[in-house]
Amino acid sequence: MKNKNKFRILSVLLSCCLLVCALPVSAAAADNTNYPYVFVHGMMGWGEYDGVNSLSPYWGGSNGDMLAALEEQGYTCYAASVGKVSSNWDRACELYAQLTGTVVDYGEAHSKAHGHARYGRSYEGRALLDTFGKTDENGDLIKINLFGHSLGGPTVRLFTWLLENGSAEECAASGADVSPFFTGGKGEYVHSVTTWSAPHNGTPAANILYDQLPTAYLLAFMGNLLGCSSMSSFWDYQLEQFGLTSVPDQGITAKLNLAGIVRMVKSNDNCGYDLTIRGAKALNEMIDTVDGVYYFSFTGEKVDLQPDGTYKAQKDMFILFPLLSNKIGKLDGEVYDGVSLGANWRENDGLVPVISGQAPFDEASVFYSDAKDETLATGVWHIMPLIENFSHVSYMGMDTDNFQYLYEEQMARINAL
Questions:
Q1: Where are the strands (E) in 260-392, listed by range?
Q2: CB of 338 closer than 8 Å to CB of 219
Q3: Pairwise CA distance, residues 212 & 350, whole Å
Q4: Which of 42, 118, 230, 328 could bridge across to 111 with cysteines, CB 3.0–4.6 Å?
Q5: The whole model's pTM is what?
Q6: Which of 50, 105, 236, 349 is catalytic?
Q7: 349 has catalytic annotation
Q8: Are 182 and 170 in contact (CB under 8 A)?
Q9: Can you tell me whether residue 384 is helix, strand or coil?
Q10: How many angstroms separate the CA atoms of 161 and 266, rounded?
Q11: What is the C-alpha R_g of the chain?
Q12: What pLDDT is stored for residue 371 in this prediction?
C-alpha cells in the first residue's frame, strides 16, 4: 500500500513538473510574431514585378530563390520592385502603392519641386500583399518587417518615418486630395527595420561617381533606352514620372527623352544624389527612428588591413568594386561635401564604409550582443557584429553561397521579439 501511495505521489509530482516546464514554452510561442517580410532592393536592383527576377532572383542570385527557401521554413516573404535609380522619396512612394494596391502618388509639392508628374503607375488589383494595415481574426494589426539592402536601407527608413509622421508640406499642397501616405499616424504598421550594407551616412563612392563622372546621366539614359523597348517588363527602371519609361503591359509609350534625362539629374531627385555624403545628410536631418519600431543594421568588410593602416580590396572582390574600395581604403582627411573623412571611414565592403552602414550618426544606436540578458529596445539602432570577408553583393549571394544563414538568424531573432 505504501508503495502504491509513493507511486501516486511521484506521478503527481512528475505531472506538475511537466506542466510547469510546458508553461514557459507555451508563453514564448504565444509571444512570437510571424509578420510578413518585405524585401527592398538597392540601386539597379529588381523584385517580383520584374521579369528578370524569375531568371535570377535579386535575393539569392545564382544560389537560387532565397525567398522561396525562406518560405519553406514558414516565413512569408515579398520582394518589392521600386525605381532602379530613383530617389529614396520616389521609391518610398512606390513601395506604399505596391503594399496598398493603389496608384503611386509622389506628392504634389515634391513633384512640382522636382519637375515630374505627380502620379505614377497603378497597382490596383495586384498589390504585393493583401494584409498591409489590416487586422487578423483576433483584431490584431498585421504588421510588416522591412529588409533593405544598400539603397533599400534609407528607402525603408524614409518609408517608415513617413508612415508615422506624414508630410505637412504635402498635406498643405494637396488639401483633401492628399495621399494617406502623407497623413501620418501609421508607424505601427511596421514591426522592424533591418538594413544590409546601407549607406546611412552616404559613401564617397557616390560622390566620385555622381560629381566627378557622368554616371547619373548614363544610368538615366540606360533607363530611357530600356523604357522605350519591350525590355521594360524584363528590367523596369520605373521612371515614367520623368517621361523616360513605358509602363509594362501598356505598350511602348516612352520615347528617347534627353530633356527628361537632364531634368531628372539636375533635380537631384535620383539615387546618385541621395547616396552622396550631402544627400544622406539631408535625409538624416529630415527623419529619425520611429518609437515602437525595432531597428537593426548589418555591415561587412572585404578588405585587408595594410601595414600603413590603409585597406586594400581582397583579390576575389566583385570585379566592379576594387578601384572604389581602394580609394575609400586610403581616406586620410579628404573633404566630401564639407565633411572630412578620416581613417575611421576606410574599412569597407567595396562600396560602403563600415562606419556609414552601422547607423545614422544623429540617431541612437547600440552595439548588439548575443548576451542572454540583453533587452532590445524600439527606436534604437542595434548594430550587428561585423561580417568578415563579406562584400556589398554578398547579401544577394552574388559572390558567396554562405549568406542565407544571416537572414534565417535575423528572422528568428525578430519573430522572437
A1: 294-298, 300-301, 303-305, 311-313, 334-336, 339-341, 365-367, 381-383, 387-388
A2: no
A3: 19
A4: 118
A5: 0.92
A6: 349
A7: yes
A8: yes
A9: coil
A10: 26
A11: 24
A12: 59
160, amino acid identity: T
The active-site residue out of 81, 86, 150, 174 is 150
Residue 410 has what pLDDT?
97
Would residue 394 show up in a list of annotated catalytic residues for this protein?
no
Please report the pLDDT score of residue 374 as a whole number: 67
- The total of other beta-carbon atoms located within 10 Å of residue 11's CB is 10
pLDDT computed for residue 137 by the predictor: 94
Nearest CA to 168 among 182, 188, 186? 182
Partners of 194 in the beta sheet? 147, 296
Sign of CA dihedral 252, 255, 257, 263: negative
Kindly write down the DSSP assignment for every residue of 180-246, as one continuous string.
GGGS---GGGEEEEEEES--TT--HHHHIIIIIS-HHHHHHHHHHHHHTSGGGGTS----GGGT--P
* 417 closest CA partner among 288, 299, 292, 290: 292
Q: Say which DSSP state 62 is in.
A: G
Question: Looking up cell 529596445, which residue turns up?
Answer: 377
pLDDT of residue 394: 97
Taking the C-alpha atoms of residue 387 and residue 394, their distance in angstroms, rounded to an integer, is 10
Catalytic status, residue 50? no
Cell of 381: 539602432
* b/e burial code for range 359-368 (CB count within 10 A of at least 16 → b): bbeebebeeb
C-alpha cell at 47: 523584385
Contact 275, 203 (CB under 8 A): yes
What is the distance in angstroms between the CA of the first residue and the CA of the last residue of the chain?
Answer: 51
Catalytic residue among 114, 200, 392, 399: 392
pLDDT at 340: 97
Place of cell 533599400: 152
Q: For residue 225, report the phi and psi dihedrals to the nearest 5 degrees.
A: -60, -45
Segments of the chain scoring below 50 in pLDDT: 1-31
Asked if residue 387 lies in contact with residue 4, where contact means CB atoms within 8 angstroms, the answer is no
pLDDT value for 58? 98
Q: What percent of the residues of the chain are helix, what percent strand, and what percent coil, each to the nearest 5?
A: 40, 15, 45
The Cα-based distances of 88 to 159, 215, 284 in angstroms read 9, 18, 12
